[in-house]
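example protein:
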Amino acid sequence: MTAGLRNKYNHCIYSFDPNGGPPNTIMMRIADRKTEILVGKQEVADDAELAKFDAAVERLQALNLDIWDAIRRFDYPM
């Protein structure tokens, strides 16, 4: 799930609502399908999507802390 979010947000640009609404993502990667070629797919970055993003950041933070704990526990050089 984290890799999918990374790929999505690394391959898009953002459009912000001047009235304060949720931002949109605009996919800049070309998607070659059997019957069509897609580019510029737009999606709203609503609260549910931002919650996925926050959860991924929390998982990466926990992984980072686990790695640093292992480095200290096994006395790896730093």
Observations:
- Strands lie at 12-15, 24-27, 31-32, 37-38, 42-44.
- The longest strand covers residues 12-15.
- Residues 2-73 form one domain.
